[in-house]
Design brief:
This protein is 71% helix and 0% strand. The protein contains six helices and no strands. Helix 1 (7-24) runs antiparallel to helix 2 and helix 3 (46-69) crosses helix 4 (83-98).
Amino acid sequence: MRWVDKIWFNALWFQATWFCCVIGRDSWVPIALLSVGLHFVLVKDRLNELRCLFPVALVGISVDVLLTLAGVFVFPEYWLVPLWLVILWWVFAAALYRSFAKIGQSPWLAALLGSIAVPFNYLVGAGLGAVSLPLGEMVTAGLLALVWAALLPALYWISHRMRPTV
């Protein structure tokens, strides 16, 4: 079994890249890109991996763009979303497909996790200065909880629809 197929490896890789993107932001984009590159080096079928990750990353980036246009997020020095966030969406897509897949087997558990864990991550990102929340922490957390209660189960579904049949 390859490292990339191990849950613990993907969880550690995701967390390390998350910190790289959120703390280092633009100055650490090259390191974040190397991290994504490492993922694609370690997978068995790169084209299939790209096919599985692309729809999830695209939906996630689109949702963050819409939330930014709606005034929920403000990324300092950016009109829409920064490159480090785009990279983070690719990393999230890989983690969702590989290490967080068990959670997605229950749509209710995915909805609960999405409504709690994801707003928490954005609040941490705001605390680290990566994003501003003009609506305030409570309103933003409430909106994100609603969005992510629906979005995380949908992203699991998309991710695993793209999985090759073996």
